[in-house]
Structure formats: C-alpha cells, structure tokens
Amino acid sequence: MSALPTRRDEAWRYSDLAAAASVWPVPAAETVTVAAGESLARTLILDAPDDAIVIHDYAITVAAGASLDFRILNAGGRYGRVALDVTLHAGARFDLGGVIIGRGATNREIVTTVRHAGPGAVSRQVVRCVAGDTATTTYLGKVAVAREGQQTDAAQSFKALLLDRGATANAKPELEIFADDVKCAHGATVGELDANALFYLESRGVPPAAARALLTRAFLSDAFEGLADDARDALEARLEALL
Amino acid sequence: MLIIDDLHAEIDGKAILKGLSLTVNAGEVHAIMGPNGAGKSTLSYVLAGRAGYAVTGGSVTFLGRDLLALQPHERAAAGVFLGLQYPVEIPGVSNLNFLRTALNAQRGQRGEAEASGAEFMKLVKAVAADLGLPYEMLKRSVNQGFSGGEKKRNEMVQMAVLQPRLAVLDETDSGLDIDALRVVSEGINRMRGPERATLLITHYQRLLDYVVPDFVHVLVGGRIVRSGGAELAHVLERDGYVSIAA
Ligand SMILES: Nc1ncnc2c1ncn2[C@@H]1O[C@H](COP(=O)(O)OP(=O)(O)OP(=O)(O)O)[C@@H](O)[C@H]1O
Ligand SMILES: [Mg+2]
Predict the structure, then answer these.
(1) What is the pTM of this model?
(2) ipTM of the complex
(3) Which one of B90, B161, B166 would you mutate to disrupt binding with A, by most A Cβ within 10 Å of its Cβ?
(4) 3-state secondary structure chain B
C-alpha cells in the first residue's frame, strides 16, 4: 500500500484519514497462509492507549480444504484499523468474530475483503460493536465471488449498540459476484440496550451500571461463538477488562 | 409490612391508579383480581419501580421504609420480588449467570457475604428440582426459547433462589398447564411464612384453590372497590366484576 488513501476509496470511507496520513506509509500487510487441509486460529487484540494510531493489514490465503478462525477485539487507539484481505480456495472456510469498542472521539474499524476464489468455500463474519460518546465505529465487509466460486456460502452479520447520541456505527456490505450458484447473506442492525431486559435485571437486584455492563458483554460475545470454552473464556475476560 | 396509601400513578400523562389503598401484613397472602386494564400490572410495576410510571400522589411504605424513594435494585435488595406477567428474554445471559449475579448483588447491598460457586450451585439445583425445571435449561439464555409455562416456572425458580420478603406475582398462573399450576402453587406455598407476604394478581379461581388467600381485593378503574376473604373469589367467579363495580 503506497498511495495515501482518500475518501473515494471504498475501504476508507469512514476512516480517520488525517490520522492515517500522519503514520503513512504503513508497513506492508502481514502475510498469513493456511496450507491445504490445515486449520489455523488467530486472535488480534488492539488495546493501545486512546492517543495511539494503529493500522493492521493482513493478506491471507486459505488453501483448498483449509480453515482459518480469526477473532479481533478492536478497542484501542484514537484511530484503530484492522483490514483483512482473505482469499479462499476450493472448500476453504473463514470465520471472523470481531468486536469493536468505541469511546471518546475515537475511530475504530474492521474492514474485510473476502475473495471466494474456488468452489464451495464458506465464510462467516460476525461483527459486534458498542460505541459511546462521539466514537465512530465501522465494519466494511466486501465479498467477491469469482466465476470459479460456485456454491459459495458467505454470511455477514453486524450489530451495533449505541450508548450515546453522538456515537456512530457504520456498516456497508458490498457484494461482487461473478458466479451464479452462490449464497450470500448479510444483516445489519443498530440499536440500544433493551430497556425491558435492563429493568428485569434491576428488579432482581442488579444495579443499573452492572446490568448495562452484563447486557453489553452478552451482546458483544456473539462474536466469540463457536470457540472452544477456554479460548472463549480468555476473550471474554479480556473484553470485560476493556469495557 | 406493605402499606399503600391513596396511591395515584400515571403512564404518559394518563391516570391509571386513582387512590389505591392496601395494607399487607407479614404472613399474609392477598389476591388482587380485576378486569383487563384495571391497573393490576401497573400496580406491580409501580411497586417494583419501573421507569415510565409516574407516582403523582400517595405513599408506599415497605418494612417501615419509603419504598418509592428506592431504585428498583434497592427495592429488590430490601425484599421486593416482582413475578412478571410477561417474563423477558435475555439472549447471551445464561439463567445461572443471571441468578448468581442477582443473588450476589442483593447480598452485597445487604452487607452479606456472597454465595460461593458451590453454595450457589447446590441451592439452584435443589430449587430447579422442586419446581420441575430441568437443570439443563438453566444453562440456556434467560427465558430464550422457553414456552410460556416454562417462563413462569423460571420466575418461581428466581423467587425461590432470591427468597424475597414480599412477592408480587402478576398472573403467574396464566399459561400454565394443570400440572405446572400445581407445581407453581406449591412453590408459592413453600414461600409462605410468618416473615413473608404475597400479593397474587390473578384472573382465575383455580390458583386460589391451591394457594388459599387470606384476603381478596377487587381492583377496578385504578382503585380497590371491594375486599373480602377467600370466598369473595367464588362470588366473582360466579357473578363477574360487573355486579361488584356497580
Ligand atoms: N405504556 C402505556 N401507555 C399508555 N397506557 C398504558 C401503558 N401501559 C398500560 N397502559 C394502560 O393502563 C391501563 C392499565 O393497564 P394494566 O396493564 O395495569 O392492566 P391490568 O389490570 O394488568 O390488565 P390485564 O388483566 O389485561 O393484565 C390500561 O388501560 C392500559 O391500556
Ligand atoms: Mg396485567
């Protein structure tokens, strides 16, 4: 990546371009390759202080029949960006579980491009985000299905919780499909904590702040589904500390 | 234990409770019956402190304290339990987590020691067995995917774990099959005791055959219009509310 991105670049639509410019050029993307038939699990946690600028780029290849499980907790930096460019070959599988926590005036985002290059590959992306104050949080998920990508099964789910009026959540799925037999599902919702659930917890003796924290954690932990118990517990513990 | 005096309350500027008075002593079970829209659930929410219910007059004293001055979680810790007419689903929070968080939050507020993991599990397993709710269900998210009857049983599990001084049960019997009604009634009866009281909101005589109340009150148009003993429920069953309100 050499040219400084502009607002016209889809993948930088809601980014903090000034912050990005101040650290440009960023290092080349980290390459991750999962060999045929293998499985790999990765976890990335952004917890830099609120004045840092953090940009992580990954160029990922998942070979035929291989699988990658990537979990991201993006809760750091004034500008914190994680961008994944994932290429899936025949029968490969990619699971993304992403959590974005925004507060103050921060801008944090997860940007993915998933290329279904071979037939029968599966991608599952679940991103949950909570934003307070005047934070901007963004999930941009592009799915590109090549002509060879028949029987692609791609799903994206994004849900955001806004804690304050000034907070923003952006989501924009983008599909680019050149095969005719594909399944691409996406859903996006933005809302607030369920007042009925809050009252229910309070009526059982849980103070409001604890009730809100419990419901927020429950909401975000959708992104940890499918993990083995100990991996999940470890991420939940980090999440609790970061909230 | 509970003294409600000339209580007025409104929702969205609409008066619902219009001078409701009721005294419940420790050891007593009171039933409140009344037509749809009379204000029964509103009364239960006002007692529990739900936002959006504005008290415009009167007072509520609970164990000598001004109940209306307390926040909902403080009321719970003071011993008020509200069994909801429509229990809420909470995706992602297990029943066990919910119960343990609630129990320890209450104990913390009362300055009591928290329940250890082992103590809590023993308590919950015993309670779930008593109330016929499979323990496995407690590992699931709160009320999510529960049938109407299972949700009501789950309210009773919560009550039995939290051991409130005053239980306000809003149509806990609605939606229960005959066996579940008996199990839930036994659960309510087990809570009876000289230190506790129960306010049963119901439409049906059948519950009151199992949980025989000391007093029955008829709530119409936001006020108690008639009170009597257990036999009053039979009169209502036979004659309906129209004769009473007239
Ligand atoms: N959020 C609200 N806004 C406006 N009116 C409301 C609201 N909630 C309840 N009401 C009204 O308040 C009145 C009392 O309702 P409440 O639920 O207390 O009745 P109820 O006695 O519990 O009835 P039911 O037997 O059907 O459960 C009704 O007329 C209802 O329409
Ligand atoms: Mg009601």
Answers:
(1) 0.89
(2) 0.95
(3) B90
(4) CEEEEEEEEEECCEEEEEEEEEEECCCCEEEEECCCCCCHHHHHHHHHCCCCEEEEEEEEEECCEEHHHCCHHHHHHHCEEEECCCCCCEEEEEHHHHHHHHHHHHHHHCCCCCCCHHHHHHHHHHHHHHCCCCHHHHHCEECCCCCHHHHHHHHHHHHHHHCCCEEEEECCCCCCCHHHHHHHHHHHHHCCCCCCEEEEECCCHHHHHHCCCCEEEEEECCEEEEEECCHHHHHHHHHCCHHHHC
